[in-house]
Amino acid sequence: MAIVGAGVAGLTAAHRLREKGYDSITVYEREASVGGKVCSYSYQGNVYELGALWSSPRYKIIDRFASEVGAKRRGARLPDLLEDGVLQNYAGYMKSHFRPLELAKMFFHLGRSFVTYPSLRRANLGSLGFEASDSFERYSKAEGFGELASMAESFFAGCGYPHHDIVPAPYLMKMMHLFIDVLAVEVLALSRTRMKIFQNGWQDLWVKMARGFDVRHSSSITKIERFDEHGKPKTNVTVDGRVETYDRLILASPLDTCGLFVDLRDEERDLFSKIRTHRYKVTLVEAENVPHASMMDHVSTDKVGHINLIARQSLGTNVHTVYQRLDDQLSEERATALMHEDIRAMGGTLSKIITSKIWKYFPHVSTEDIRSGFYDKLERLQGKCGTFYVGSLMNMETVEHTAQFSIELIDRKF
């Protein structure tokens, strides 16, 4: 068994295969360390995240993994909301903008939506209803919780997701499913539902998960060829100048670029050409007088490149993580300049840029492609040529959803 990619999807698949009794598993990783978009950075004795940051109360798979490997976490506070210079927590914002009955109705309509479309909670995005495949903005308004979705948009923007009129509803409904519990922290002060941060970093969890597997770090795969041998699928992987042969292949690397080294069939090439991503910048800075908040004034498309979220991961320090959505035209230098401008406008002072990372983030397809059966077509390809596909595209760009799909696929196909 060959797995290409030692991020969340690939390592979860390897873990599940081992639980089912498979022991001949090789994991190839292009980078020198595992984790993929889970990326931790040490600075002055503390660990900060440049990729995934919080875990939600609904991260049941991650809870189990953390318990298995002894990865400890601590509680974390939900960022406040900054709008027109006014800083409020979610409880305060909801009280100032909605009457209790209005709020109750919106939460009811949101819950009803999950009951009406139970497929929104499944790991697989195939066979969705027409209405549930609409843009999240139109869908949330039609379902009666549009204002609740608008309130969450600045937080979702800070988490790296595009504007609500662009993103198909199935993706962000999965985020809303997580966000309900997070809001309960603010509204009901239920400590058991608090968000959490890994004490030694998210990446430490996946380093520990990788132990015991044959993980080939810094692997350079130049060609993957699939063929039949006596009626059975085989795969040749050319890596670091040598050819290794496997019975099955799990692609846990970005499907939109795997054609650079995989001998794609026409249907694969057609489907993968529909995948969209966008740029998402994460910067670790030293700064004074900046809020732990998402920016409600910066969610519109004309504010691209402005700060969407500032997170203070470690109390007692002046180190903050700044998150910005970028488009294809915005240069890294311009994004840095906008960050400086925004912090000054808040009355803050940025004294040092420690490090930064620009991610190719949130693989997804359009509303039209979902309605045209993209996920059903991709599902029918699972197992053909001895090849299987996992990753955040298959479910949603969160750690939990990525892991959920890997487990579900292994349970169905192996």
Overall residue-averaged pLDDT value = 93
The helicity comes to 25-40%
Strand content: 25-35%
Helix run count: 13
Please give the largest β-sheet: 7 strands, mixed
Strand order of the largest sheet: 7-6-15-16-17-14-18
Task: Write a brief structural summary.
This protein has 414 residues and is α/β, with parallel strands linked by helices. The chain is built from 13 helices and 19 strands. It starts with a strand and ends with a helix.
Task: Name some characteristics of this structure.
5-stranded parallel sheet, 19 strands, 414 residues, 7-stranded mixed sheet, 13 helices, alpha/beta
How would you characterize this protein structure?
The chain is an alpha/beta fold and 414 residues long. The protein has 13 helices and 19 strands. Helix 5 (136-143) crosses helix 7. The termini are close together.
Topology readout:
Blueprint: E1 2-4, H1 8-19, E2 26-28, E3 40-43, E4 46-49, H2 60-69, E5 73-76, E6 80-83, E7 86-88, H3 90-97, H4 100-116, H5 136-143, H6 146-158, H7 169-188, E8 195-198, H8 202-210, E9 214-216, E10 221-229, E11 232-239, E12 242-246, E13 249-251, H9 266-272, E14 276-288, E15 293-295, E16 307-311, E17 319-326, H10 332-345, E18 349-364, H11 367-371, H12 374-381, E19 387-389, H13 399-413
Parallel strand pairs: 1-2, 1-13, 2-9, 6-15, 13-19
Antiparallel strand pairs: 3-4, 5-8, 6-7, 10-11, 11-12, 14-17, 14-18, 15-16, 16-17
Helix pairs in contact: 1-13, 5-6, 5-7
